[in-house]
Amino acid sequence: MSKQLALVIDLNVCVGCHACVTSCKEWNTQGAAGPLTDQNAYGADPTGTFFNRVQTFEVGEFPNTETVHFPKSCLHCEDPPCVPVCPTGASYKRAEDGIVLVDYDKCIGCKYCSWACPYGAREVDGEQKVMKKCTLCVDRIYDAKLPEAERKPACVLACPTSARLFGDIHDPESEASRAIREQGGYALMPEWGTHPANHYLPRRKTGKRLHADELERHDNPLKVDGRLPRPSPDAPALDDVTSW
Amino acid sequence: MNPAWSVVLLTTLIGAGQGLYLALFAAQAPAPLMRIGIVLSLALLAAGLAASFFHLGRPERAWRSAAKWRTSWLSREVIALPLFMALAAAYGWTQDPAVGWAGVAACLALFVCTGMIYACLPFLQEWRTPLTVVNFILLGCASGLTLAAALAAWLHPELARASAIAALVVGALAYLGRLASLARNARLRPKSTLATAIGVKHPKITQIAQGAMGGSFNTREFFHGRPREVVRAARWTCLALVFPVPALLLLAGQPLVAFLAQYVGLLAERWYFFAEAKHPQNLYYQAIA
Amino acid sequence: MSTEVKTTTCYMCACRCGIRVHLRDGEVRYIEGNPAHPLNKGVICAKGASGIMKQKSPARLTRPLRRKAGAERGAGAFEPISWDEAFAMLEKRLAAMRATDPKKFALFTGRDQMQALTGLFARQFGTPNYAAHGGFCSVNMAAGLIYTIGGSFWEFGGPDLERAKLFVMLGTAEDHHSNPLKIAISKFKRDGGRFISVNPVRTGYSAIADEWVPIRPGTDGALLLALNHELIAQGLYDREFVARYTNGGQLVVTDPASARHGLLAVDEDVEPDNPLYPQNQLWWDRHSGRAVLSHTPGADPRLFGSYRLADGTRVQPAFQLLAERVQPHTPEWAEGITGIPAATIRRLAHEMGVTARDEKIELPIAWTDCWGNEHQTVIGNPVAFHAMRGLAAHSNGFQTVRALGILMSLLGTIDRPGGFRHKAPFPRAIPPSAKTPTGPEGVQPGKPLAGLALGWPGSPEDLFVDADGKPVRIDKGFSWEYPLSVHGLMHNVITNAWRGDPYRLDTLMIFMANMAWNSTMNTDEVRRMLNDKGADGEYRIPFLVVCDAFQSEMTAFADLVLPDTTYLERHDVMSMLDRPISEFDGPVDSVRIPVVPPKGECKPFQEVLIELASRLKLPAFVDAGGARKYRDYPDFIVRHETEPGSGIGFLAGWRGADGSKALLGEPNPRQWEMYEKNNCVFRYELAPSYRYMRNWNRGYMEWAQRMRLRRYGEPILVHLYSEVLQKFRLAAQGKWPGRRPPPELAQRVATHFDPLPFYSAPLETQATDLEKYPLAAITQRPMAMYHSWDSQNAWLRQIHAHNYLFVNPRTAQDAGIADGAWMWVESQWGKVRCMGRHSEAVEPGTVWTWNAIGKSPGAWALAPDANEFTKGFILNHLISDTLPGDTSNSDPVTGQAGWYDVRVRIYPQ
Q1: Is C151 in contact with C426 (CB distance < 8 Å)?
Q2: How many angstroms separate the CA atoms of C125 and C128, rounded?
Q3: What's the CA gap between A88 and C325, in Å, rounded?
Q4: C178: nearest CA in chain A?
Q5: Could you give the domains of chain C?
Q6: Is residue A56 less than 8 Å (CB to CB) from chain B?
Q7: So what's the ipTM on this one?
Q8: I need a labelling partner for B127 at 20 to 30 A (CA). Which of A16, B103, C185, C732 fits?
Q9: Quick one: pLDDT band at residue C792, thresholds 50, 70, 90?
């Protein structure tokens, strides 16, 4: 089976710091996918092209609220609906590693691919007027000039909580595959059959069960200081009243 | 979705042009009517084509868009539209029935392509129905027939009555088709929810932040941002002007006014067509903070 | 096209990660975390990766600016001048002040990580009026813990999440040491650790907590007392730790008639080796049933009971007094105050106690304690805590933090694996031996200050007051109003200088502090005071110098603006003399080396200080003949020694003539090169046996003394019972033989200098009609923005362009406020219009917003319709620095600004 590179995003540890957002912008705006332009950078309603955004959701009602930080970028679907609809072939999925890319030189900016993406993962650049999206930093993950450990997308390297795993999800031995398999990795909007390559790992809770005997112990330090004194042998006891 | 006027104009103008061609061919219209009608049809198609360029970020590269006809309905439309225009022109020039039939085939193909651009997107549930294609055909034919009636009233009054009746019949069918799709869409249950969008199984999920506060492509392209009253007005304009008003005007012998009214109705209809389509990506863009 | 990669240290926030900066044709193109850096190990945060946009900010100041003659302050009308003119102007003014009354000059800095140099400058100048922003930020956290355990969170220590099993985070604590903490929390969670967050709001790290415990703001003290209550009631404290490593077993004189009431009983026959830190306290040995010298071999102290010494003095173990103190503070009592169910409080205490007791870690590391006992292993009780501003920024924060320190100590988690661990140069003695002058005679014309501007009072004698008990410092630091204001009180400076209370200033120099906006409690008042003139037509604060890299709300008020560089354009040191980036396992310091030249005429503030110091001939900056000693800041860093021949300099790495020495050694002329070759960071790993239990670790103490990290080597017992506080209380009660507070402050000092932690509602809560203002209003900082000097960043402002007030939906519905609607939030001091956002992640009695997103129109070179102006707001408009009766809205112990205490009501627009 061919390679399918993907990100596995661990919502269990994502604290919503946006490190992946700006490191992505920073790498890609100066790299092969750039520039990622900004409009109204210092004015009203500043806006710009980002390949990756972190969103925040609240689940449940107070006090049982979960705050979920949710990074979202192109999911590099195994069956990407955005690719066949492209009239020019600018959008394509690479056979060798499954990365979905846009050839900026062929893109006519018709936005049809973005309509065909249920995840909102594509953005037309405000200045260049072509469709842009996450490339999995294709211009660095194969860069032989970089040390092996750094041949990863910028967001993965940046993430302080290492909430972003990168790897080949067709290789069952990869860290990404193992995480999906062992930690309940799931895909977004499975109802559309897009088979996103990117997966998310759910929140996992660590609880603590306390047993009564953990509080009732012979080595209670209060005894050392006489705070749990033994009753006098003369105090009433069962032995006083019954002989069985 | 945020209705793009370029696309609203494209689909309504070429629909009318296609309908007009079909009407002329079906009626085997006499020469002056045929000639002027074909020219008018071509003008509508050309205007639609011109409008479509305004939809493109890089119109200078539009020629590339025929490349992926094997997979893309948009690419197919890009081929079908000029092909149909060429055949229509040829038929107008030659009056050769074989060319005319070829034109009809191209015309229907174009209708199907245009409709399928929308109907093929699986997660735009409002569009994902054969009714989308059927309505593109019927609404296009209805407006073409009304326009044909107006032309006939001007150039061939003896054809006026028949063409008006045809326009009324097809218009009624189109109206029924559109009502059917409205009724269908009113009952739609979105397949995607916030629970499937972020993969958290809980009935109460609320978005707090979407990661950008000044808007993004996602907020500009997929939300019309108009108040509910505007959407309601578009819907009522559509319901009134697509058929009932033009029908009365046709009966009153005012086919040109009827066409103009109907075209306005179609603009409203197409605007509403986009506005009512709820893209699942919108689930990710509900709130900022 | 040429590309190169340079390493330096980030300063987009106080975290200070190692970065690699990629340059193309000399222009910054990409900034990434440096994988070889011990702090961040290659990761970088949202701010760090946006540093590139800081270089491009349109708000950059590039030339020295002088306020135009006739223009009002705040109008922002300036004319560019040359550095020569600027220096000449400053030299003349400062020289005149130094020759007559040096305290007329005040230097306050927003950044608290350049204090080694700014503090040296102020001290050499001779002014006591110097501090960074700690008093506004989190001094309660520093003081409360350092006076209790000899170390603190902040850059001074932290939770050992590598080995902890239970991690409890109290209040907002995201912003210092943020990337290392993120790395650690993630790893901790993945390793199956249990994470509990106690916070009115669930954001940030709390989002990924296993359990969120919502609490009412400012009531953490009540929770902590109840936890301590439950641990003691259940016997879930680490008795051995308490007995040996805290003063819990030491005997306190409890005889109200005695002059030593409340002080530790001592064996007066034993002459202390070091009178500053005497070791002659007593235990009541449970084996022999009599008083013995503390830590007598073979003895074990009673923790409970009441005893009489041979002379009849009634004494009780400190732990007994603590137990009595927390006895009434049951979980049920705390429930009513905190809003946390008693059952939850009880369960939390049990979880902490059982985890600490039953999941012990034992490392095969032999060490010797200060009393000569050899230990074959290091024991850890794996319960770790973290807290910062959420606990600190309340006017009851000091005692709250004391209660936290005591909780951590009862659990036996101090400088042990899996608990709290110190970072060099901590632990310090309690209190640290650094002191200010003790009276106005410490300030003399033409002379350096006779002490440090900031210190650690150990008794009333250490206060910096005159014979009448009146303050010497402009901010009234170390006076009876705020005796332990160990980080100064930046938030008082402008108000006091404007009032002329205690005196008027001539020149106020502000470095990187936005006091006209979000770095002050009473924004509107401060802006008015900065612009206010006296009857003579002169500004009440005559000369205001602001040094900053960006045009901000504050620079608009300056008479002279000095354009600073960004962090990519300067040399800088993260010094052991200041706030280094040390790790648990040893000292670490680092440097910044410029990767691009300064923009325009920008000059690093350090160079400004070196230049001024040289011109003013401040002794440390000139040779014996009065000639300039240092060419520039890098030269100063390399050659400066704290004393001639001390071997202690700003940088600890590669010392000695050839760079072969660490921590101590003669200057090395090639020190910068060596840092540059080593990723700009120096790391010293302590021998394993010196890494734990450092308060009481003889090996560590001796090593630290040899390395001159410490002057003294006495063990640092945890102060469950604070004798230091009791000394101040005795003074307030008229029982102290030395200095006594002025009568009007006596009651306040007597109340708040309680040697045992207590809970009282924040001062503002007490002074507010809670019927009218039922809600608490607080702020947090978004991770992509904290440390707000970068809010104009083109990328970051897209993430947080404006802010909302977050309100629990039930609270909002009761007030009739729809989600997203415009609304008013009003305190007794002011009101501000804002937009509301319903949120289930905030407890119903609290409203909150992101701090420092809203901006003042005209600032930061933003367009007039920028969201920061039109939709953003800051809560500071609702906060006051004074309370009814003209008392300060700060902690009576430390002066910490109580800016998380404001009470509000909300209503629709």
Answers
A1: yes
A2: 9
A3: 78
A4: A160
A5: 1-136+435-575+588-662 (3.40.50.740), 150-425+717-721 (3.40.228.10), 763-908 (2.40.40.20)
A6: yes
A7: 0.96
A8: B103
A9: confident
